Amino acid sequence: MAGPRPTIRCLREDLGLAKLPPATEPLDRIDHVVVGKAGEVCRTDPPATEPIREIDDRILWKVKIGRWRAALWCHDPRPWILAAGYRRSGDADDFYTELGERARRWRAEYNRSHTPPLGTDTWTDPLLPTRDDDDRLALEAAVGVVDDIRRTVRGLTIESARTGAEAVDESAGCELGVLVRRSDLGEVYVGIRIIGPAKPEIHAVVLDAVPAVADRNGWFLDSMPGRANRPGEIVWSNLLDADALDELAGE
Predict the structure, then answer these.
(1) Are residues 224 and 181 in the same domain?
(2) Alpha-carbon dihedral sign for residues 157, 160, 162, 164
(3) Engineered SS bond to 156: which of 27, 36, 150, 167, CB 3.0-4.6 Å?
(4) pLDDT band at 126 (very low <50, low <70, confident <90, very high)
(5) Phi, psi at 169, each rounded to 5°
């Protein structure tokens, strides 16, 4: 199961985060004591805490650290921090009591306009992840794929430049192979092959990830030297900047 993740509503309204971090920073890794404590609570099954007894329409778990309080929903495949609050010194209000009161009000409002009525005492659906949370997850996943492609292609290019042999790995559900060869005239050739159900935009990301390319517009379809293309294999080739490549290979 993935680490606990605060909803965007919880982040903005309860934890006071006015601006979301870039998509390169997953929200389940955000630097906040509530998120960190929720991660500790989720390490066991059942969680190492007690349920919120004021809530009865779903099982929510207590997260307590310092004066922070939170409600954790251990939903598979991803637990969510649905609500949080900070108890200031001298404040007699109990976060979980207030959460139960809100959930009962939501339940009453729901029953006024829906048939059949809810049979539970509370209704916490207004706290659940929304389309905004789904969109953020999708964006983080896409950014993660791009970052993995860049790391993989860069590593393969450097490895092949050092060994003179084709370097192979996988990324974005595809098999990637990079071959760097130097000609007697001092030109440096790079061939990169892609095997797998990659969309055209993935090909663009792969090619853009190759370091030390002399001309980003110089890519053309080719075949790996000394052999025919394999079934399902697409090969692109270009020239590399020898000085820039030597600098990379020396890292």
Answers:
(1) yes
(2) negative
(3) 167
(4) very high
(5) -160, -175
> Which residue, of 77, 108, 129, is where some domain finishes?
129
Could you give the number of structural domains in the chain? 2
Residue 48 is part of which domain span? Answer: 5-129
- pTM above 0.90? no
149-156: long-range contacts, CB 8 A cutoff, minimum separation 24: 149/202, 149/205, 149/206, 149/209, 150/205, 150/209, 152/176, 152/209, 153/178, 153/192, 153/206, 153/209, 153/210, 153/211, 154/209, 154/210, 154/211
DSSP readout, 152-170? HHHHHHHHHHHHSS-EEEE
Same domain, 102 and 40: yes
85-100 CB burial, b ≥16 within 10 A, e <16: beeeeeeeeebbeebb
Do 20 and 82 sit in the same domain of this protein? yes
Give the tens place of pLDDT for each residue, 1-37.
Answer: 678 999 999 999 999 998 999 999 999 999 999 999 9
Q: Please report which confidence band the pLDDT of residue 207 belongs to, taking 50, 70 and 90 as the band edges.
A: very high
- Which residues share a beta bridge with 189? 181, 239
